[in-house]
Amino acid sequence: MELTSCPECGATAAIEERHVLESTDGPVEHAKVRCVTGHGFFLPVASLEGPAVRREAARPVPARRR
Length: 66
What we know:
By secondary structure, the protein is mainly beta.
């Protein structure tokens, strides 16, 4: 699951889907975003505030054995 912030209220939002749409300037990646308060958007990924955070990447890394 990828998380970001809601473009309207700033609450935590999940990126539910990603799609690449063609444009006159080339392909543009879009995302379907839904926040915890219920707002929903389909917008270019570049317009999301800050990088999307992958929940899998947030797991702690096991300590190395010596």
